[in-house]
Amino acid sequence: MLQRIRRCVQAGSLLVFLVLLVLTRYGGTDELAWPVRLYLDLDPLILLGTLLAAHTVPAAFLASTAMLLLTLLLGRAFCGWLCPFGALNQLAGRWRGQSTAKGRNHSHGGRLQGTRYGILLMVLAAASLGFNALGIMDPISLTIRSLGLAIGPVLEWLVRSCFTALYNTAFEPLLAVSEPGYNLLKRTLLSFQQPAFRGAEIIGLIFLAILALNLWLPRFWCRHLCPLGALLSLGARMGSLRLGARVTCNNCGRCSTSCPAGANPHLAGAGGWRPADCFVCGNCTASCKQSLGFDWTWPRLLGGKVQGFDTGRRTILAGTGAGFMLAPLVRVTNLVQPAPPERIRPPGSRPEKDFLARCLRCGECMKVCLTNGLHPMGLQQGLEGLWTPVLVPVRGYCEFNCTLCGQICPTGAIRRLSLGQKQRTSIGTAHVDPMRCLPLALGRDCIVCEEHCPTSPKAIRTVQVRSFLPDGSSVTVHRPLVDPDLCIGCGICEAVCPVLDRPGIRVSSMGETRDPDNQCLLSGGGY
Questions:
Q1: CA pair distance 369, 355, nearest whole angstrom
Q2: How many Å apart are CA 425 and CA 513, to the nearest integer?
Q3: CB of 428 within 8 A of CB of 509?
Q4: Which of 71, 135, 230, 521 is deepest in the core (most CB within 10 A)?
Q5: 338: which DSSP letter?
Q6: CA 292 to CA 284: how far, in whole Å?
Q7: Does pTM top 0.70 for this prediction?
Q8: Domain ranges of the chain
Q9: pLDDT tens, residue by residue, 93-147
Q10: CATH fold for domain 426-527
Q11: What DSSP string runs through 26-72?
């Protein structure tokens, strides 16, 4: 019964997670009506990492303390019952097939069993020095980033391609069925436009590689790599729910073979069961018809011998030392290179140091972006800036009447702004390239950038000038001028520029409101 209930709850939790992930998109209004970041708010690892890195705790994360209390009662029930990434790992493990798993004892953890504690200590030590790498390893952030930026867009492209192929058949009876279905999908599941993100192939391959590890050992990530699992393991060792042997064990080995956590359920009667590793999945009690069962005891908060994996001093020293070395190494590496001009942060972003200390790299802001303008950053700013959001105007601009990215950011790395505040916040400045601009370079009239500039008064205005052609003749064209005091760096001018390979007007981060040192040298006037 426990196993059946767990499967229903686990499937329901995964479904809720996927539904909230789908709802993380523009829905026709500038308000998010659903608690789309619910799983992030319930993540105690993010609470602890944000506290260490940014020395602050967003109010929404206080709900994650309930997860710690649940762990004291039920052990690592979150890992076995509620975690969406745990459910995906379990599904991937089922591809191994019964013939492969039959007779294999997974109760031994080997030398990798304590690796997750080392990873937890490493990311927490780095966070204490201001380098927040928790979002890279946190399972909730990893799942949202992977599904939202890599797997989801691929699936959406396949759906759109299938319906496009059906439409091209021009077979009327088929279109009568497919078109209403496609319209329904566009209203409910599909994004406003086909999303595509730079660097998504790397994010997707890492995600698939983690799932593929389950073909070697079930729940490999959960047992050996997950820092959230390591944090919950510390509380699970003191939990109230304990596995025990009710009658004499006949040493059939079914429980240890069916255990995906390697928690030694066959040693429950002898005190060798490891609560820090147990997912409370119920596989062992379902496979054992007479001996094993869960019972309630008082939480072991004040001592008492609790069986669990001994991480050892080497793991503790290696993890902590790696974290304390990683943060300074990343910081020193960034000192030798200036801020890249393409580092255009979303409006409302905090100053760069505070922004990096808070950002989880979860990808929520990128997925919710209406124009698909926000993308994960590569290594242009070193490891510290990896997968943080940047605006890529050539792919999409910052919508003038949108504040969704500030609403969805779980840690406040992107502050929530009112629409009026957002429209007065500069994230960069546009610059005209005279070697690429059509009126200046080719003598062909163009006023596209001025027409689309959303500010009032317009930050881009045009003046009539005479341009000479290669044959010696001259024409009158409209030359664009940018007023840096009015430009907010939204990037729509670069996005709509008819020069496709490298637009004739481009936006850089210079002039951003959040950094008084990254400003234009000119004061007022056009150029």
A1: 18
A2: 6
A3: yes
A4: 135
A5: P
A6: 7
A7: yes
A8: 2-148+204-296, 426-527
A9: 887 654 344 444 454 455 677 889 999 999 999 999 989 888 899 999 999 999 9
A10: Alpha-Beta Plaits (3.30.70)
A11: --SSSS--S-TTHHHHT-HHHHHHHHHHHS---GGGGGGHHHHHHHH
